[in-house]
Amino acid sequence: MPDPFRASSFIGFRTLLHKEVLRFWKVSFQTVVAQVLNALLFLLIFSHVLDRRAAVHGEVPYTTFLVPGLVMMSLLQNAFANASSSLIQSKITGNILFVLLPPLSCRTFYAAYVLAAVLRGLFVAAGVWLVSALFVAAPLAHPAWALAFAILGAALLATFGVIAGIWADTFDQLAAVHNFFVIPATMLSGVFYSLHSLPPLWQKISHFNPFFFMIDGFRHGFFGQSDTSPWLSLTVTGGCLVVLAALALAMLARGYKLRG
């Protein structure tokens, strides 16, 4: 099987990646700017209501605590949306054939779609962080941790987006995955609260949500504080990525719902 980064297949990888990046960049006002605005609205509303009444970990103002959660939430949701919407749109319009006809390996296909989705997620995350800095200071205590979780988290949700895009036959099916799984799992992962503010039962339940580990680890990169060990969060995130990547590659190798 050809490797996506060998000279013989790199041109195909680069071309497909370029196509996917252009796809979201040409409408960046919708795919990037609008997403930054949505996160900013969350920040302004919650800071107005709760900032004077709440602190997290005893010393971190609530608005400051909220910033990394909103950054990571925006990154994850946009990484998923980019990969999944691109695939389902290509399937429905029929132009997926033009991607499948060239001699691209499943690894090349996977790498291009995931990397493009990661780039969109990082663009949105950077935008949310920079705009948030106009209202509240949220310095990075451990940039390496934050970057590691940003890249791994984006890759994980992009991979899940590839799987959802392959599986779904209609926009309604894809919307169901996004609305009934991705959004609830993100909202209930600690974006707006610390795990220790929950009752003991819900604290245990939260540990079954992989989104919690991604967001908690990312927040550790900002404050050096987290609800669980960043090494545990890194292990869970990396493990989930390996499992989903193996599933996505298996589906691509079989041509599941891609080849008639």
* Number of helical elements: 10
Uncertain residue segments: none
Order of helices and strands: HHEEHHHHHHHH
Helix content: over 70%
Q: What is the mean predicted local confidence, pLDDT?
A: 89
Topology:
Layout: H1 7-25, H2 28-50, E1 55-56, E2 60-61, H3 62-93, H4 96-100, H5 106-132, H6 143-167, H7 171-187, H8 200-206, H9 210-223, H10 230-254
Antiparallel strand pairs: 1-2
Helix pairs in contact: 1-5, 2-3, 2-5, 3-5, 3-6, 3-7, 3-9, 5-6, 5-10, 6-9, 6-10, 9-10
Q: Could you give a quick summary of the protein structure above?
A:
It is built from 10 helices and 2 strands, in the order H-H-E-E-H-H-H-H-H-H-H-H.
Keywords:
260 residues, single chain, 10 helices, two-stranded antiparallel ribbon, 75% helix, mainly alpha, 2% strand, globular
